[in-house]
Each structure stands twice: as C-alpha cells, then as structure tokens.
Write a structure and sequence with these properties.
By secondary structure, the chain is of the alpha+beta class. 31% of the residues lie in helices and 28% in strands. Strand 8 and strand 9 form a beta hairpin.
C-alpha cells in the first residue's frame, strides 16, 4: 500500500470517528433535552456532507432504540425562515414514527422538547416511490396520493438556535415533532403554489403564507429534496410523509400556547403545549 493511499484511508477513518463522536453528542443532547455549542464554530472544517453523515449517526441510534422512518422533511425553504435563522439554503432530514403526534394533542415541552418553534406546512403523502436525481415537480405531483395541513414543531439541540447549515443538517434538520390534520385532499385539485395557510396562536391571528413561499411551490421544494437525498442514495418510499417547508415565520411555543392552522380548501391542524 502506498503512503498516499494509507494516508487517505487514515484521514477517512479519522473523519468517520469524528462523525460518530458528534452524532453521539447530539443524540445525547436529544435524549437529555440539553443543548450543545454550534458545530461550525469548533474549527473542524465541517461540510454539508460531514453534517449529513453525522445526522445518519443520530438516525442509526434512533432506529436502534426502536424508531422507524416514516418520511422526510425539507426546511429553511422560505425567505422569512431563512432571514429569521440566518441560514440561506434548505436543510433536510428524516421523520420517525415517534416524532408524529395526533391532531389536537398537547405536547409536554418539559418531557420532550428544548426550544420549540411552530411552523405551518403542506405535507405530501406519497403513493409511489421517488428516487433522485432528476425528479421533476410534475413527477412529485404524479407520485403524491394526498396533501394534508401540517404543523411541524422544530427544535434545535444547538444552543440559542445559533445555527448554520452544517449545524441544522447535522441535527436532523432541527426536527422536533409534527402533527398532520385529519383532512386529506387530492393535490391535483389545487394550484399548490396558491394554497394559503393561516395560523392562529391562542385564538389570535398570527401569520399567513402561500405555497409559493417554499421554492415557488411545494412540488418544487419536494423535488429538490428528492434530488438532494438521491445524491446520497436515499429514495422516497410509497406511503411516506414529506414535509415541504414552512409557509410562515417560525413562532416560539411555550407552555399554555395553542396553535391552529387552516389550509384553505383542505382543512385544519391543531396543537397545544403544556
């Protein structure tokens, strides 16, 4: 073996060990509801590929604990959310069965969250698999069985939401929990870019936004996600839930808060906090 190849193998092994170390740190933070300092400020020269490898390490730990992947998500898609977080490109992550909560349920923040924020989304439920690269918005439409109103409650294991793209991708796209409203609609019955979401907090109007907020359309947003994950060999499977990104600014959630969203012509979703 040449010194060049042995050196490359050594660097790869060292990088893999670093990924495992950081995955273990973030998973421990998830389990203990603690925060860690931003990864990007540690002088580790982490790339998005590194961050994705870290997120896979967290996912593997969740799966060993009995969790099951039921979907994927794209985040930080709208200008409002990008400006709020200071992250100017989308992130991506996995959804598991333990992240899903019932419509109208109450989330006990002290038992499972750290610094939650609520966002209103359009969820797509697939009837056919998709594998990027090369997926188009039209193919996303053809593969989608139905859409549903959705609240995603994002949560960061990074202190004070001080995140860059590497931090949020490594932290599974700042996933917390999500709730789907009971309504289902055929996406072919709507122009998804023009679908409007309205949000109320404690029965007071809070925000509203259109499907066009997420890369011009939820179909374009989900196509981007399919193609990005396709580069890592990860397909969308039939039956999976795909969260297409927030249509409105993120709103902090505290005990006693109650959020309701209405997706015009489709239905509503409700979540409360204790």
């Amino acid at each position: 073996m040449s010194s060049i190849s042995s050196g490359a193998e050594g660097r790869a092994a060292g990088r893999s060990a670093l990924h495992e170390q950081l995955a273990a740190e973030l998973y421990a933070a998830l389990q203990s509801q603690q925060v860690v300092p931003p990864l990007r400020g540690r002088g580790l020269d982490l790339t998005v590929d590194d961050a994705y490898a870290i997120s896979l390490g967290i996912l593997a730990r969740r799966q060993r604990a009995g969790e099951r992947v039921i979907g994927k998500k794209i985040g930080v898609t709208s200008r409002a959310v990008q400006d709020m977080l200071g992250v100017h490109q989308p992130d991506f992550g996995f959804l598991t069965d333990r992240m899903r909560i019932d419509d109208g349920a109450t989330v006990a923040i002290a038992q499972r969250m750290i610094q939650p924020r609520a966002e209103a989304e359009i969820a797509l439920i697939l009837k056919h698999p998709l594998r990027g690269p090369g997926v188009t918005p039209q193919q996303v439409l053809e593969a989608t069985h139905s859409i549903a109103p959705c609240f995603e409650i994002v949560d960061s294991r990074i202190a004070a939401w001080d995140i860059g793209i590497v931090d949020t991708v490594a932290d599974n796209a700042s996933c917390g929990v999500f709730v789907l409203g009971e309504a289902r609609a055929d996406p072919r019955d709507f122009d998804l870019a023009k679908l409007r979401a309205r949000v109320w907090k404690n029965d007071q109007p809070l925000s509203e936004g259109l499907g066009s907020a997420v890369q011009g359309s939820p179909l374009a947003s989900v196509a981007w996600l399919a193609n990005t994950l396709g580069q890592y060999g990860v397909p969308f499977e039939a039956g999976e839930i795909i969260l297409s990104g927030s249509l409105v600014p993120l709103e902090p959630a505290r005990p006693g808060d109650r959020f309701r969203m209405e997706l015009t012509g489709v239905g509503s979703a409700l979540v409360s906090f204790a």
